[in-house]
Write a structure and sequence with these properties.
8-stranded mixed β-sheet, 15 strands, alpha+beta, acyltransferase, 16% strand, Arginyl-tRNA--protein transferase 1, 27% helix
Length: 510
């Protein structure tokens, strides 16, 4: 709802019973607590079978690793020649991972790097055609956790390369050295002729190490005659813009095929509401009726408690602060189109400090293109683009890092990144966390033994509840209610949220 002092209303579900884990398939090993509405849950980290750690990437400092460049090259090869790689993708699709325009781009325009077009209501951009082969870039890659070579990988005596021969070197390094030697020979010849020329430094010759940025890989031009052009469209999903509504059927069909092929859902399980990710429709009479009641209740609360004027209490539209990105904050779908065919959809939230990846689904026919990792790279580049408009928007959230699930460890390759300490809620560089997770399923990442969470619950009576359409502290609710006050459950809920959040969110009490 609109207004700076508005409340979110939640209903709490305890997490004392275990249920099936979607990662390790343990039938009773998953423990978490949940709140309804737009459902959120918090894993019981010390108890659950697969602890889930929030992970964020420092988007501005990200440099693609070798594995990322291979994925970009694979996509470029497909767009150029139309050949899909054999076998499945080499990564797990983003599980907790946008642009629309009325213009159709010509084949000639597909060879440009970036084209921006504004359309009514959305002002999204069209990012053209993907990266070409990056192998000739001449840049080294930053090491990743997976790049570390173990002692077991060292060749045994009498095995492997001949130790008497000099080690192999990259051709690009040899070319640099030859170039530098030629320049130095020219300078020496000039000195012999009486010249006072100074030999150029490697930096002056352009040989200094300058890693190629992510955008250079993504926006490199395709060759003439490329068979495909990839178009990425950003459309607002909540509230839905006209472009989202127009493309919804195509999006739903991709989602249905994805759920059936990748997650083995029966044909009748994938629903349209799952694609919207919000179970509301303004075409639904029951929702419209309850929504109007909700707005009326909200208006009474704001005018009585906060003294707002009546005209300030209408239903909210997209958040569009002056210091935010042009499209505002909210939920969006980043649609991937090949010609007139939608092949993938990345669901993202654009927030004041980050782009948060919610979900990705794609047509199973294109699984071998590693679209989970490819979309993550595009979303990191998108975050960097938004940061130019909104300086504080500098992080890319990848959902959860799950070290106990090998298929989910690929998220740790997007460096530099941090994991959230489950005890102090401080962000800790992932390199320091991995060593601890190798030794124990559950680990505290913050190495300061005296550190704690400053937001920990101190007084449950100040937690806010909504009871009989009235907002009140939990202490007043206990005095007003006749009978049990569910203190144990409310304390469990407020402990999970912490003092500040418990006082700013309304817990529904029947």
């Amino acid at each position: 709802m609109a207004g700076g002092n508005s409340y979110t209303i939640v209903e709490y579900f305890g997490g004392d019973d275990g249920y099936r884990c979607g990662y390790c398939k343990n039938e009773k090993g998953n423990f978490s607590h949940g709140q309804s509405g737009k459902y959120v849950y918090k894993p019981t980290m010390m108890k659950t079978c697969c602890p889930q750690h929030p992970i964020r990437c420092h988007a501005l400092n990200f440099q693609p690793a070798k594995s990322h460049k291979k994925i970009l090259k694979k996509m470029s090869k497909f767009l150029s020649k139309g050949e899909l790689p054999k076998g499945g993708g080499d990564d797990e699709p983003m599980d907790s991972l946008c642009e629309e325009t009325g213009l159709r781009r010509s084949a000639k325009a597909c060879h440009s790097q970036v084209e921006v077009a504004a359309v009514p209501e959305t002002k999204e951009e069209v990012v053209a055609c993907p990266p070409a082969d990056s192998e000739t870039s001449g840049q080294d890659d930053p090491p990743t956790v997976q790049d570390v070579v173990s002692p077991a990988a060292t060749p045994k005596p009498g095995m492997g390369a001949d130790p008497a021969r000099p080690p192999c070197r990259k051709a690009k390094d040899l070319r640099k050295e030859r170039r530098l030697r030629k320049e130095q020979m020219k300078c020496n010849a000039g000195e012999d002729a009486g010249s006072a020329a100074t030999p150029p430094t490697p930096a002056a010759l352009g040989l200094a190490h300058q890693p190629k940025p992510l955008e250079a890989f993504i926006h490199e031009s395709l060759p003439d005659g490329a068979l495909h052009c990839l178009e990425v469209r950003l459309v607002r999903s909540s509230p839905p813009c006209p472009q989202f509504k127009a493309s919804f059927d195509a999006s739903y069909q991709v989602y249905k095929l994805y759920q059936m092929a990748i997650h083995k859902d029966p044909p009748d399980k994938p629903s349209e509401s799952q694609v919207r990710l919000v179970p509301v429709s303004f075409e639904d009479p029951q929702f419209v009726a309850s929504f109007e009641q909700s707005v009326a209740l909200y208006a009474r609360y704001q005018t009585a408690v906060h003294g707002d004027a009546a005209h300030e209490c209408d239903e909210s539209e997209a958040e569009s602060p002056s210091d935010g990105p042009e499209m505002g904050y909210g939920s969006f779908h980043q649609q991937y189109w090949l010609g007139g065919r939608m092949v993938a959809v990345g669901v993202v939230d654009i927030l004041p400090t980050c782009v948060s990846s919610v979900y990705l689904y794609y047509h199973p026919e294109f699984a071998s293109l590693s679209l989970g990792s490819y979309s993550a790279l595009r979303e990191i580049a998108f975050t960097r683009q938004l940061q130019k408009q909104s300086p504080k928007l500098a992080y890319y959230y990848l959902g959860f890092y799950i070290h106990s699930c090998p298929k989910m460890r690929y998220k740790g390759q997007y460096l530099p990144s941090d994991l959230l300490c489950p005890e102090t809620f401080a962000w800790v560089p992932i390199e320091r966390c991995i060593a601890r997770l190798e030794n124990a399923r559950y680990a505290r990442f913050n190495q300061d033994p005296d550190a704690g969470d400053a937001r920990t619950l101190k007084d449950v009576t100040r937690a806010m509840v909504l009871y009989k359409r009235t907002v009140m502290p939990y202490g007043a609710y206990c005095r007003k209610r006749k009978g049990p006050c569910d203190r144990e459950q409310v304390e469990q809920y407020a402990t999970l949220l912490g003092q500040t959040s418990a006082e700013s969110i309304l817990l529904y009490r029947a």
